[in-house]
Amino acid sequence: MKILVPVKRVVDYNVKVRVKADGSGIDLANVKMSMNPFDEIAIEEAVRLKEAGIATEVIAVSCGVTACQETLRTAMAIGADRGILVETDVELQPLAVAKLLQALCVKEQPQLVICGKQAIDDDANQTGQMLAALQNWPQATFASKVVIANGKASVTREIDGGLETLEISLPAVVSTDLRLNEPRYATLPNIMKAKKKPLETVKPADLGVDVTPRLTTLKVSEPPKRSAGIKVADVAELVNKLKNEAKVI
Amino acid sequence: MTILVIAEHDQQSLKAATLNTVTAARKIGGDIHILVAGSACNAAAEQAATLQGVSLVKVADAAHYQSQTAENLTALIIAHAAGYSHILAPATTFGKNVMPRIAALLDVGQISEITGVESADTFVRPIYAGNALATVKSADSIKVITVRTTAFDAVDAGNTAKIESISPAADTAQSTLTHRELTKSERPELGAAKIIVSGGRGLGSGENYHTLLEPLADKLGAALGASRAAVDAGFVPNDYQVGQTGKIVAPQLYLAVGISGAIQHLAGMKESKVIVAINKDPDAPIFQVADYGLVGDLFEIVPQLVNALG
Fold first, then answer.
1. pTM score above 0.90
2. B111 touching A, CB under 8 A?
3. Which of A75, B134, B148, B192 has the highest CB neighbour number within 10 Å of its CB?
4. Predicted confidence band at A226 (pLDDT cuts at 50, 70, 90)?
């Protein structure tokens, strides 16, 4: 069974982003970029399925600028067997990425796509579901546990009221939530090995996909700032403030 | 312009998030229809008919809508999408699961988690965990949108809209719900609570979380929440989590106990009206957003607070 894992290059988790002064977007100059944390969990899950003898090959895919090669190398250092870069300078939105992945699914015929539930830059939470729809595959989003057996996936999902378990036929799309696993650190020997793994580059046009954005960003602004209030000395003062000043209890 | 709102419900009643979503639809303007897809979901449909601004409730009642799977709901909504200018659902795990599937089949982009409506095609939405707000304009013929519920008030009742039965789509049989484990609680729902008591790693254990915070939540009639650290440490189940990837909340009062205030957590609660932080570290980032901060040992302060609330 082949598993395909899309990985996105995003501003690193620990970076405090700044809005550009002209309101045109986020300042990305000299900002540390990393793999989207949810995608790291997706790669880890796929590699574990391979280590368990369930998957035969793990293919990492990234869509975007040339530098996404680094993200693919990271995925291969965790354990993906090879990488595919869909290279473009166009701003890619979730529908376009889903169409690119669909074209690759047709070509590679994976039985499972494991993706992060959302990217921490645009916070869209769309691509996996869109890919499942385009392929007419079942989906299991926000997974905290995945069990593959008898050509089916049993997936425990984190939902607002608690947990639910879905049984879906394969091929399918699974999107990862935070508690699915804890991704390993890539070791130096594996980072070196990853440099020698195959990395193929294609263009959206090669896949016959129109990636024109559907949404135009008119402006990006800072959210209203919340300023620090006061420190109270003790519980009595706190209760007094909540009752008489804030009037919330 | 006609807007279709997809109701989130438990067959008997609408989830509060649906009421906020209708308010967002009213801001866009136009005729508003609600779709209630379920199994023996008449009570939920009747409630939908009472919502202000709604002109028509469409009900699809079939056994295969009981578990609300994305595959079956999508097939139904796609079959009835013609003529709508906008399709809206709350940005809950329900809406986030279903809506992108619909958008993809309609070949349109989705606008996720809107917090503001500028016009019928222009919306405001948070990006980078709420550290920036993007104003986006959609060029698509149908706007598929999820709504951040804390950004819109709940719509009032008092209406009597028409209820119409629609034919269900065929069962796709692609997905089967085998188990659902909902956390049972007498407390208010996190997303709809006026007061939230939230605990973090500072509590040290699940036992401490419950013995300290439950009496406080009882006194205040509050919902209980937690930071990601507390959930990851196994103090409480995942559905307690407040933050960028958990629940986004905006209560009247948010009490953060033993929570340091990671960016991810702040993204989920900084719209709260009043924030109180109790933490032993005076430099904890949570104090930068708290209206009232109390530095000290939570194991002493919380019981004192319970007593003081009489």
1. yes
2. yes
3. A75
4. confident
